[in-house]
Amino acid sequence: RFDEFEFAESCIHKALPLLAKNKDQLSYAVIGNVYNSLAVHSIKQHHFEKARNHLFNALQACKQVSKADDQSVLHGVATILQNLGFISFSTGQDEQATRYYTHTLARFNQLEDWNELTKLLNEIGLIYQRNGEYYKAQGCHERATMISECHHLDTKHTANMVYNLGFLHWQHGRKNKACDAFNQSLNMLLKVDPGSPLVSDIQEYLAIK
Q: Distance (Å, rounded) from C-alpha 55 to C-alpha 61?
């Protein structure tokens, strides 16, 4: 419940200065995670400016952790930057969103977190798509699809990447390429998730052609 979260948030804010007094690595790591969690809740409530402030505080806390190459710290920073990118994307600040996402990509690549990397490439592709940059969008979606297939990611996840590429081709009148991608995505989905809404969407596109 929202009112319960508000009470919890007020308690957390009282606890944060006490944690900060310790000035040790664990305390700063906890502070970073707490601020990021608060930001996620604010994002869900569409309180984007409040969320942004929480994320900046989370970044400041992470900077105090000396082991900057530690995997947990890297992942924490990547998640914070990803959330900042999402806020920028949601508020129409596409250039800023792309910058945040690009910084995040480097960290997920370092972590070899291919699932998050491909999701992020898809988001960047959508930004380019929204701004009419077809070839840049195509490059992002193709790279996401290649990584999904190369690292044998979840079949449903890969099917979504392939669908996004097909949809991009469709929007730009390249229907043969679109249908190739749609058929590939459809075959994957029918094996693992035949009830997916994407199945009927793809079948509609194929029927139009």
A: 10
Can you read off the two tokens belonging to residue 24?
């040790």
Tell me the average pLDDT across 10-30. Answer: 64
Looking at residue 46, the DSSP 8-state letter turns out to be T
> Given this model, what pLDDT does residue 65 score?
72
User: What does the alpha-carbon distance between residue 97 and residue 135 come to, in Å, rounded to a whole number?
Assistant: 19
> What is the DSSP code string of 98-143?
HHHHHHHHHHHHHHT-HHHHHHHHHHHHHHHHHTT-HHHHHHHHHH
Find, among 44, 137, 136, the residue nearest to 87 by Cα.
44
pLDDT tens by residue, 129-172: 889 899 999 999 999 999 998 999 889 989 998 999 999 999 88
C-alpha torsion 21→40→50→7, nearest 10 = -70
Evaluate the CA torsion angle 41, 39, 45, 163 in order and state its sign.
Answer: negative
How many Cβ atoms from other residues are within 10 Å of residue 112's Cβ? 9
**Average of pLDDT values for 63-73?**
70
